[in-house]
Amino acid sequence: MSSIPNTQYPIPNTQHLTAQIKKKKSFLCIGLDVDLNKIPAHLLQTEDPIFEFNKAIIDATHDLCVSYKPNTAFYEAYGIKGWISLQKTINYLNEKHPDIFTIADAKRGDIGNTSSMYAKAFLEDLNFDSVTVAPYMGKDSVEPFLAFENKFTILLALTSNEGAFDFQTKKVGEIELYKQVLETSKSWKNSQNLMYVVGATKAEYFTEIRKIVPDSFLLVPGVGAQGGSLQEVCKYGMNEQNVGLLINSSRGIIYASNGLDFAEKAREEALKLQQEMSEILK
Asked: What are the tens digits of pLDDT across the range 159-210?
């Protein structure tokens, strides 16, 4: 995999992701945000509790989702051991379930050379399919991620947290900042590699977002524990071409139980969302 920018390669293939959505009747993304204070106590006796937890969740839910999203903070917090757990997790996914779309939720973004190294870490060394990136520093902080062929950059556009209103919805001239981010990002080199983060708690904004990026995939956190409505998100955010949504649920699935039945209970919660998605896709 080359990290040298190339503007000639074709648009990355989202057909494979769309095919998975149709096959599984699901556009569910499961967040693997592992907190050792919350996982079942019996796993703490294993050599690598984080990986053993992830492996069990993956084994129990892989047929119900099309994507997994480890938030890297939950691994970096445990130092080198956490990073090894992350590497083992992505290796397991790539070896056992190569069809599943993987997201490194790292929210990186820095000046060009540094971004190139962040991109290399997640898209080349760890071999994730995509990485989340903050747009605040602009074009030269994002384009190094976009330079990786057949990889995706998921740009923070409109997030689900309370502080999103501090900047993202404020007007810059006549246009809200999040709209400016969306519009401007389309002019960047290899912008066809972009997806966008849009929080589920901002469902009323999806209509305006779809006017700007009608065909792009949107990664949507905030359904479930944060109170976002799946029905509302799909009503305003789904597109006809490829569904165009990856709905993320983390805590509501992976911490459904902290007992010996944790993986079974995680599957039950994932199945509820998958069945709701299946009805919507009809």
From this structure: 988 898 999 999 999 999 999 999 999 999 999 999 999 998 777 899 999 9
For the chain, give the longest Cα–Cα distance: 57
Place of tokens 């992701």: 17
* Pair of tokens at residue 166: 């501090």
SS3 category, 51: helix
- Catalytic option among 25, 88, 107, 272: 107
Least confident piece of the model among 49-53, 115-119, 240-244, 252-256: 240-244
CB 229 within 8 A of CB 222: no
Structure token digits, residue 219: 């990664």
pTM for the complete prediction?
Answer: 0.93
User: Is 14 or 186 the better-scoring residue by pLDDT?
Assistant: 186
Query: Are 197 and 218 in contact, with CB atoms under 8 Å apart?
Result: yes
Packing angle, helices 262-281 and 49-61, rounded to 10? 40
End-to-end Cα, the chain, rounded Å? 38
Q: Which positions ≥6 away from 235 have C-beta within 8 Å?
A: 203
Separation between Cα atoms, residue 255 and residue 55, nearest integer Å: 14
> If residue 175 lies in a helix (H) or strand (E), which one and from where to where?
strand 175-176
CB 70 within 8 A of CB 104: yes
CA pair distance 201, 146, nearest whole angstrom: 28
With b for 16 or more beta-carbon neighbours within 10 A and e for fewer, the 196-228 pattern comes to bbbbbbbbebbeebbebbeebbbbbbbbbebeb
Q: Say how far residue 266 (Cα) sits from the centre of its chain.
A: 19
Distances (CA, A) of 278 to 57, 224, 265: 21, 17, 20
**Is position 235 annotated as part of the catalytic site?**
no
